[in-house]
Amino acid sequence: MEFFQKKNNLKRDLLLIALVVIFLFITRGYISACTADWQCPSCCYKSGSSYYYSDGVCISGGCACEYPGTEVDCCEDSDCDCSEGGYCDNYECCCFTGDISCSVSDNDIKISWSSVEDCGYGLRIDRISPTSKLLYSGFQSSGSVWDENLPPATYKYQLFMSSSIGDYVRTVNCTVSGEPDFDVVSFSCPSTVGINQSFSCDSTVKNIGTADSPKTVSPRGIIYYANSTEVCSFGLWQSEMTVGGTKDTTCSYYKFSSMGNKTVEVCADPDNEVVESNEGNNCELRTVKSTCTESYCNQSDTSCGSFSSCEDDNTRKGTKVDCYCQAGETFCRCPSVSCTQDCPSGQCCYNGNCYSGCHPTQSSKKCSGGHWIDSCGDGTCNCGETET
After folding, report:
1. CA–CA distance, 72 with 52 (Å, rounded to integer)
2. What is the number of alpha carbons within 13 Å of residue 214 lying toward its C-beta?
3. Which residue, 173, 207, 180, 181, is CA-closest to 104?
């Protein structure tokens, strides 16, 4: 009885071994017998240090690799345990790897990648938002590329590799912040104006920065000053101060009540309500000369005071003298008595005629500054000399 039991166990063991052998042949893609090559599956083998993929052939009733070498396990892409994509290159699995980073310089972004394994199929570097752009496509395992002249925004980039078992994607965000910059790009005023006379100045403010204005500045968006006194104000609206936007203004309320050189200034956002990339270009200054006018002289005759020694030649002595304008400045002169005309500035009147040099009858006098004066005190007339 024990003999028959051992014999049955042996049969069972032999059958189990046979089933295992058949299973191994099937899972390796081989069958023990064949009559044609088409019955033999493809196979992988190694020759030297290189791996190869070969068709199977039927040799002497059994399947074998078409080319000689050491047989190795074959694989399919689906056999590879690559969670984010990869390939089976006939004999072994290759999984994707790689990193991506970025840095900002002004309005340019540098995108870098490193430690890339693309399994020989290449990689891509793309900008994917806010707009799309292919920046690189190739096989470099590390490198960098620039994305230039970008307006302020947050930009998203990706390292991308694709395979039948999945895609490998790594992303990174970089932000170009930017700031507005209000620049007085033009400012014009007249160089001279009459005293107590109104005039106008024009200016243009432009946002030359890399970001739109974040707010409206009103009412003190643009301020005009005359001799440091505020005379005009305008709002600087957010809708006007987008990147490249301009605002034109005109101020026409200046009146200078005295003569001489005056200052006129215009400033954008003088209170610095908006943070700008450059706060040093918000103002422009001009010099305007306030000059004499006849109407001003007529109102200011008293400034000439009284003379007690006006010359005798057809002029009146004593009392008040006249104020007149010359080259924008005020001067005083004795009122004419018998001259039928007012002489040009600097000339003297005698018997109804105007003279600019020597006195017609008195060689010891000459005309200087509109008055007859003794000529150097030597009794001779040397025109052009200065009285001392």
Report:
1. 9
2. 10
3. 173
CB-CB contact of 138 with 113 (8 Å): no
Q: 296 vs 112, 293, 300, CA distance in Å? A: 74, 5, 6
- What are 295's two structure tokens? 């109407």
Rounded to 5°, the CA angle 163-67-80 comes to 25
> pLDDT (tens digit, 9 = 90+) per residue, 139-182?
999 999 999 988 888 999 999 999 877 889 999 999 988 889 99
- What is this structure's pTM? 0.48
* Closest by Cα among 177, 240, 167, 233 to 205: 240
Instruction: Give the C-alpha separation, 254 to 186, whole Å.
Output: 19
Minimal CA–CA distance to 158: which of 197, 188, 124? 124
Rounded to whole angstroms, how far apart are CA atoms 31 and 20? 13
Quick one: DSSP state of residue 383? T
What six digits make up the tokens of 381? 């007339």
Digit-coded pLDDT (tens) for 87-113: 876 567 788 999 999 999 878 999 999
Q: What are the distances in angstroms from CA 17 to CA 12, 21, 23, 119?
A: 9, 6, 10, 40
Residue 135 has, within 13 A of its CA and on its CB side, a CA count of 23
DSSP-assigned beta bridge partners for residue 152: none
The H or E element spanning position 61 is none
331: its two tokens: 């001067």
Residue 256 carries which DSSP code? -
* Confidence class for position 262, pLDDT limits 50, 70, 90: very high
Report the distance separating Cα 251 and Cα 264, nearest Å. Answer: 11
